[in-house]
């Protein structure tokens, strides 16, 4: 059975081609480099890991309740549709499986997009220090795609095609000739919202396997967002007001696309639900409004930091209700992401040591008996 056989519906399952744009750039300067970017490159090398070995794929998993989230977090909680199915255990399990599969499928498609974008950055960025780091990110994103693909294929057994809003943003990001646009579209916008989504799910789910996967992926993604900040902050300081305005327009459009990406209309349609009722509830649910705003926790301060803070961007962020996030400490969030991943590793090591002690005690007792 191939992945195509696991798609919830066939749309978008064929290969998707985007015409190449821009130039491949070589540089003959091999000595000079930005200290912070080279330090990030060193960390990127030091922190490589193997998804087969670091993640405990033997952990228990329930396909009828894949995320184990509180019922109030259901996007259509309280809707007419929800009222009809809430006492049907089988249907609620079906809904839970489809929502988890949809969410992790978008993570998977986004990671493949990130892999292609980081390869594009390696090819087109003019500075060698940025090429060095982008090359480590290609490997990171390949590992993330491998991880989510395995989760979907082996555990969930169901895959959703790429969300139309994410597809539009990826198309715009990769088809632009300017070398900085893959940075802006991927490192700042797509990676920024993905990092926030990963973090919210990591902190809410009770499933140990998901916590491991999300924590380890976030440990890498935090570096990727930092990479975008370092590279673009220097470059955008040199641009004219007209050039900055073009990029601010791209940011505004991209943020609205990312907000709409989480409406999950394809899930309601696939399950045969009342799409209008579900979409209305998703738009007006207090939890979903809070959830969508929190998705911009990593984007807003980054956009401000790189110098794209004109009237259009501020107006859009006021409309989205996320302007107050501009003062978020990204460095503190990055450290917290790294610390949590290391803590999970330490807990696993302690569990292994404890298991060995218990086995030794049983053997000792058996020998004495």
Task: Tell me what the CATH architecture is.
Answer: Orthogonal Bundle
Distance between the termini: 51 Å
**Domain module count:** 1
Report strand %: under 5%
SSE pattern, N- to C-terminal: HHHHHHHHHHHHHHH
Name of the CATH superfamily: Ribonucleotide Reductase, subunit A
- Individual helix count: 15
Structural category is mainly alpha
> Strand tally, please?
0
Roughly how much helix do the residues carry, as a percent range?
55-70%
Structure overview:
The protein has helices at 35-46, 51-54, 80-85, 89-124, 128-156, 164-175, 181-204, 208-236, 241-261, 265-270, 275-284, 286-294, 299-305, 311-320, 330-368. It is an all-alpha fold and 369 residues long. It has a single domain, classed as Ribonucleotide Reductase, subunit A. It starts with 34 loop residues before the first helix and ends with a helix.
What's this entry about, in short?
By secondary structure, this protein is mainly α. The chain has 15 helices and no strands.
Task: Give a topology summary.
Layout (H helix, E strand, L loop, with lengths): L34 H12 L4 H4 L25 H6 L3 H36 L3 H29 L7 H12 L5 H24 L3 H29 L4 H21 L3 H6 L4 H10 L1 H9 L4 H7 L5 H10 L9 H39 L1
Helix pairs in contact: 1-5, 1-8, 4-5, 4-6, 4-7, 5-8, 6-7, 6-9, 7-8, 7-9, 8-15, 9-14
């Amino acid at each position: 059975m191939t992945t195509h056989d696991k798609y919830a519906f066939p749309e978008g399952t064929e290969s998707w081609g985007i015409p190449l744009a821009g130039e491949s750039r070589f540089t003959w300067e091999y000595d000079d480099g930005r200290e912070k970017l080279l330090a990030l490159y060193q960390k990127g090398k030091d922190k490589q890991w193997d998804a087969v070995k670091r993640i405990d794929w033997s952990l228990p998993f329930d396909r009828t309740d894949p995320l184990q989230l509180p019922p109030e977090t259901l996007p259509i909680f309280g809707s007419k549709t929800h009222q009809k199915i809430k006492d049907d255990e089988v249907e609620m399990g079906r809904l839970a499986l489809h929502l988890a599969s949809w969410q992790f499928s978008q993570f998977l498609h986004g990671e493949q997009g990130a892999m292609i974008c980081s390869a594009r950055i390696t090819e087109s960025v003019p500075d060698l220090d940025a090429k060095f780091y982008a090359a480590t990110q290609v490997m990171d994103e390949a590992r993330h795609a491998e991880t989510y693909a395995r989760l979907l294929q082996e555990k969930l057994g169901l895959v959703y095609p790429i969300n139309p809003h994410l597809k539009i943003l990826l198309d715009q990001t990769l088809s632009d000739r300017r070398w900085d646009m893959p940075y802006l579209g991927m490192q700042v916008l797509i990676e920024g919202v993905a990092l926030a989504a990963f973090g919210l799910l990591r902190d809410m789910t009770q499933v140990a396997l998901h916590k491991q996967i999300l924590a380890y992926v976030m440990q890498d993604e935090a570096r990727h967002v930092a990479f975008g900040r370092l590279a673009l902050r220097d470059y955008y300081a040199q641009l004219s007001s007209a050039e900055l305005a073009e990029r601010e327009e791209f940011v505004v459009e991209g943020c609205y696309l990312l907000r709409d990406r989480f409406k999950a209309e394809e899930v309601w349609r696939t399950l045969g639900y009342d799409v209008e009722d579900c979409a209305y509830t998703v738009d007006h649910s207090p939890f979903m409004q809070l959830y969508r705003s929190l998705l911009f926790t990593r984007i807003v301060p980054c956009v401000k930091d790189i110098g794209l803070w004109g009237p259009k961007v501020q107006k859009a962020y006021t409309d989205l209700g996320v302007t107050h996030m501009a003062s978020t400490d990204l460095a503190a969030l990055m450290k917290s992401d790294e610390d949590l991943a290391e803590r999970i590793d330490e807990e696993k090591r302690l569990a292994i040591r404890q298991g060995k002690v218990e086995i030794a005690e049983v053997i000792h007792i058996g020998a004495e008996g």
